[in-house]
Amino acid sequence: MRAWTGSEAWLISSTYAVATAADQVAAARIVDDEEETRRGGEPLERAQPARLYALAAGGLLALLGALGFFYASDFGTGGDLASDDLAGILLLNGWRNLIYLVAGVLALALAPRRPREVALALGGFLVVLAIWGFAVTDRGIGSILDALPTADRDNALHLLLGILGLAAGIAEGGFRGGGPRSARAARRRSPAVPRGGAGDEPR
User: Fold this and answer.
1) For residue 138, is it within any domain?
2) C-alpha 71: how far from its chain's center?
3) What does the pLDDT look like over 82-97, one tens digit per residue?
């Protein structure tokens, strides 16, 4: 087994730190929301898995995209397609770095407002990318559209992140469907009923 160099070990630890920090930021925001609803006398909202996923996955992809340019920044295609590996795990080139960076930044930017939509969109995109990658990979390596280098490890990572995103988005929809927000909305829509009941006659 090849030993990791100092830069590769730093890259892996940095990736883990960014994902952990994103989770902590999301958790702190949820705590703030709960404190606000507690002061207002409203029921507490449940944790939001879609927001956690969007922040963590977005931070991870943005970091991989930015660091990837230090390893491989070539935008060649077809016969000029070239790639390099990041920490001996991922195959990268300029196009793939760009996709990671744009997807990660968009996820981080939209996560506070549209967490469920971000989780579903990013998860679906990564699942499609993984299936496409598996289809074109031969003997452990391949390329998508002669522009994106891919390998079995890359496809497995995309598939894992994609399934997590779809699961987080579906779970978020389930929480919203029967959670406190729906209950509060129902109370706002329901007309006020006199305290004595509808059948009581005024005296």
Assistant:
1) yes
2) 24
3) 666 676 678 888 899 9
Q: Which two tokens stand for residue 180?
A: 């406190």
| Helices assigned H by DSSP within the chain | 6-39, 49-71, 94-110, 115-136, 152-178, 180-189
Tokens of 130: 């993984």
Is the pLDDT reported for residue 200 higher than 60?
no
Our count of domains for the chain comes to: 1
Tokens of 157: 């990572």
Spatial distance between the Cα atoms of 144 and 165, rounded to a whole number of angstroms: 22
Place of tokens 């005296």: 203
Q: What are the φ and ψ backbone dihedral angles of 148, each rounded to 5 degrees?
A: -110, 110
Average pLDDT over all residues of the chain? 74
Residue 98: pLDDT above 70? Answer: yes
Which tokens belong to 103? 């997807």
Please give the single-letter amino acid code of residue 26. Answer: A
Domain holding 74, by residue range, is 6-178
Give the 3-state secondary structure of residue 149. strand
Q: How many CB atoms lie within 10 A of CB 145?
A: 11
86 lies in some domain: yes
Residue 185 banded pLDDT, cuts 50, 70, 90: very low
Q: Name the pTM for this structure.
A: 0.63
